[in-house]
Amino acid sequence: MEKLIYALLTLVYLGVGSWLVKGQKKNSITQSLRLFPYLFKIIGYIWVGISLIMVVVWGLKSLEVWQIIAHHNLNLGLFLLCFARDKREDELSNLVRLRAFYYSVVSGFVVVILFNFLNLVLGDDELSYPSRALITIILAVYAFSYSTLKRKVFYGK
Amino acid sequence: MVNRLKIERAIKNLTQDDLAKLIGVSRQTINSIEKGRYVPSTVLALKISKIFEKSVNEIFELEEDD
């Protein structure tokens, strides 16, 4: 079952990933980022909301496979949310996105190292940090940083 | 960096939204430039100067600590 989930996810992420990078000129760093239409941001919010309920409900009593599905569902929702355009996308929003990515990657790195360290200290044999949790951290920090930084630079709040 | 964007906009009787649409950015970006929270790229500065029919130096000016 887990193999099937990952096979499907591979297809989905390969599809959306290749769509996102399609048409990007290799020599143009100033080119605007290719993002999903604005509608996907709204879909992403709804998706994340439903997924969070699934994570809580299935996380409490279901089989591990359902917890994995709920978690990946949350990641898909966050992915749509993070890679969807704003109503008006311009050079400043691109700059804010870059800064948000910077924070999210650093946070992801720190969380993985910290988690492994705590596991060692607490005597847990399991060293690995689930990739799906890392993806959640990176996407969630990105979404949070993007909205915070945007508010700060656009409205000075 | 200081700029005369707000003054130039008032002279031309343009709102932030009008200017944003003319140069293809968001109204919030114009607001950020006016408040000095964001320094625009060369391309954007040239687009602004074209709208106001003035050189970039007349709209944007370096400060001593820049």
Give an account of the 3D structure.
The complex is a heterodimer of chains A (157) and B (66). Chain A has helices spanning 2-21, 39-61, 64-82, 91-121, 131-155. Chain A is an all-alpha fold. In chain A, α2 runs antiparallel to α3 (64-82) and α4 (91-121) packs across α5. With 66 residues, chain B is mainly alpha-helical. The model of chain B has no long low-confidence stretch (mean pLDDT 92). Chain B is 58% helix and 6% strand. Chain B is globular, with a radius of gyration of 11 Å. The relative contact order of chain B is 0.24.
Annotation, overall tally of beta strands of chain A: 0
Derived from helix and strand composition plus strand pairing, the structural class of chain A reads mainly alpha
pLDDT average of chain B, as an integer? Answer: 92
Distance, first to last CA of chain B: 7 Å
- CA(first)-CA(last) distance of chain A: 47 Å
Secondary-structure element sequence of chain A?
HHHHH
* Radius of gyration computed on alpha carbons of chain A: 17 Å
State the low-pLDDT regions of chain B, or none.
none
What would a concise description of this structure say?
The complex is a heterodimer of chains A (157) and B (66). With 157 residues, chain A is an all-alpha fold.
Structural key phrases:
A: mainly alpha, 75% helix, 0% strand, B: 66 residues, mainly alpha, two-stranded antiparallel sheet, 2 strands, globular
Give me the secondary-structure topology.
The complex is a heterodimer of chains A (157) and B (66).
Chain A: H1 2-21, H2 39-61, H3 64-82, H4 91-121, H5 131-155
Helix pairs in contact in A: 2-3, 3-5, 4-5
Chain B: E1 2-3, H1 5-11, H2 16-23, H3 27-34, H4 42-52, H5 56-59, E2 60-61
